[in-house]
UniProtKB/TrEMBL annotation:
Protein name: FAD-binding oxidoreductase
Domain FAD dependent oxidoreductase: 136-293
Annotated source species: Sulfurisphaera javensis
InterPro entries named among the record's database cross-references: FAD-dep_OxRdtase, FAD/NAD-bd_sf
Length: 325
């Protein structure tokens, strides 16, 4: 059977390998509009079924020899006891203690958070470059039809612009700042500060005086319009981390759903979608891809993530990206 995947992001690339390994004839279409950064955050310290998707994603990375480099994580702020009990039930190595350099009690995670080399995954996928459109359940690339038995829409912020069907998603602009600091430890740890409202992650993970700061904020826009993210996450992070000098803004376009959780499922007979990854595709993307693969090949459903959970709607408001809860 011929499978056409529109979009070469983390979810689309994961699906490519799943279908290829199962013996399908797979083609991937990529417009070239998207930025793919070398590393992104992978964490299992999520909640509910997202934890299972994160574990499945980790297993996928390990199977395909995608680098996962672990660093300690520090979670600050009130975390519901039910979530902590979940983490303990999965056997995650967490502890709570006062950390002097953060001036706060934190939940410390060991081997729970990593930088994952997603660019290696994406670069391993062969693709056809072109502008894809879906019209009446048929795929056209630069106006030429591509014969397909199964079509998967997985182009992130571009999903709603590639199809003649109304989807419960919105595209938005997202950003984070590379900052120079006085504490080389910030390039070797993750900080998720729900008290002040920011996250910090390593840039290179080498203990240099440089890190990345973000807050998961969103600017609703189409993915074709240039936007400029502000310095608010850096200003907030300074309250905890000390002096931070922003030197570069990393930016891109993501896709959100009404509840800021992922979606997958069938749109029509042979047309499927995976998306709404809301900025945490590296954490749950391969796991969600496995759900879609199982839906297509086995008829199995995980209703919590199905696109059908949303009724027809004319508009909705986006929330904040879930970094990490």
């Amino acid at each position: 059977m011929k499978v056409t995947i529109i979009g070469r992001g983390i979810a689309g690339s994961s699906l490519y390998f799943m279908f290829k390994e199962a013996g399908y004839n797979v083609r991937v279409i990529e417009s070239g509009f998207r930025k793919f950064y070398p590393t992104l955050i992978h964490s299992v310290l999520l909640k509910g079924k997202d934890i299972e998707l994160a574990i499945e994603s980790k297993n996928f990375y390990e199977k395909h020899k995608i680098p996962l480099v672990y660093y300690p994580s520090y979670t600050i702020g009130h975390i519901d006891s039910k979530i902590i009990d979940e983490w303990i039930s999965y056997g995650f190595n967490i502890s709570e203690k006062f950390v002097d350099w953060l001036s706060s009690y934190t939940i410390i995670g060991e081997k729970t958070d990593a930088l994952v080399g997603v660019r290696k995954l994406i670069d391993a996928v062969p693709y056809i470059e072109g502008k894809a459109e879906i019209r009446n359940g048929r795929v056209f690339v630069d106006e030429k039809e591509i014969d397909s038995d199964i079509i998967v829409l997985s182009s992130g912020a571009w999903n709603r612009y590639n199809i003649d069907f109304k989807l419960p998603v919105k595209s938005y602009y997202c950003w984070a700042w590379v900052t120079v600091n006085s504490n080389p430890l910030l390039d070797k740890v993750f900080v998720y500060d729900y008290e002040i409202g920011y996250y910090s992650r390593p840039l290179f993970g080498l203990g240099m005086k440089i890190n990345i700061i973000g807050d998961g904020d969103t600017i609703v826009t189409d993915p074709f319009t240039k936007q400029f993210g502000n310095l608010s996450p850096v200003e907030r992070a300074k309250k905890r981390l000390g002096d931070l000098k922003p030197v570069y803004r990393g930016e891109g376009y993501c896709e959100g759903t009404p509840d800021m959780r992922p979606i997958y499922g069938r749109i029509s007979d042979n047309l499927y979608i995976i998306g709404g990854l809301n900025g945490y595709g590296a954490e749950v993307g391969p796991g969600l891809a496995r759900l879609l693969f199982n839906l297509i090949t086995k008829g199995e459903e995980e209703k919590e993530y199905l696109i059908d959970r949303f009724p027809p709607m004319s508009d909705f408001e986006l929330g904040r990206e879930p970094h990490e809860l």
